[in-house]
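I can't quite decide. Please look over this sequence plus structure tokens:

:::
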Amino acid sequence: MFAKKTIKDIDVTNKKVLVRVDFNVPIKDGVVSDDTRIRAALPTIEYLLDKNAAVILCSHLGRPKDCVDLQYSLKPVAEYLGTLIPQKVLFAEDCIGPVAEKAAQALENGQVLVLENTRFHAEEKKNDPAMAKELASLADIFVNDAFGSAHRAHASTAGIADYLPAVAGFLMEKEIQYLGQVIEDPERPFIAILGGAKVSDKIGVIRNLLQKADQVLIGGGMANTFFKAQGYPVGDSLVEDDVLDVARELVEQGSNKLRLPVDMVIADKFEDDATQKTMPTGPVPDGWRILDIGPETVTAYAKEIAGAKTVVWNGPMGVFEFPNFAKGTFAIAKAVAESGAVSIIGGGDSVSAVNKSGLADKISHISTGGGASLEMLEGIELPGLAVLQDK
């Protein structure tokens, strides 16, 4: 049950509505190269336009150094959005100040305005009340639809709610409903699959999921740290030596739930054309590194996934950017897609892996926010959600 008000619970007709979207998309040579996050915002934008609202969109893009850096301009994104909706999309070359105020005042009902990158101002990340107030002065209502930024307390995600009625958009609602269900009351068996390079990014998530899930299946570079914590030499594999104690403690805590790979694919260099061998889990020879889970692990994990009613997956099983070391990740994607379970892919690299595998349409929910979905799975309240009005 989604406990926050959404745009359906508030009168938006003929109002100026400022929507915080997550338009932090990859841009190559001035052109948007992946429009997933833009399309994810369309239901909210279209609903507001149907209600004859004047829609003002704000977002960050990339990591400019708190100043104007035009390689991070949202102008190409505004132009791209104009190809997806019938309305003309206007662009303001600042998100606050006279330029933004003038553009917002001139905006008519049924029109769309995109503001320039909020991170061109240092005040954004400081959640500065003055910037939040300036953003709020542009509109009558604030809508947060940027799930991917909801874990940050910034001026445009959290601070602004002090000055305007604040509700959720449809994407925010959908994300929280799926991820919230997993945390509150998942259908069982509930299987969590965690991969990616680092254990350190996911310690809190592993701890929380060991309490909630029936099985936690580990793969990817983070498995190496668990192997070393159990005393296996891992050759030249990526390892986080500073969290070996934590890894040991997690293995003890999850004695009957935490599953590690039983075999692995090792390579003599970090390249797609490296010589590779498959070996049972154990000491890795010097000069070799683990780059994927092996076929026996795939079989064992796929068996667990096949019986699941809920599956959450975050992080690839190997270096899937190299086609020769993508087999484990793609096999797990196939197992999840065929399981018939409610399946949730939690942002980041696992999303590109599922897209590459061509199975995205068989997944129940693909999250648009890596960091935000991880914090939810860790049980942390998201600042950009907490500030919205309760139903």
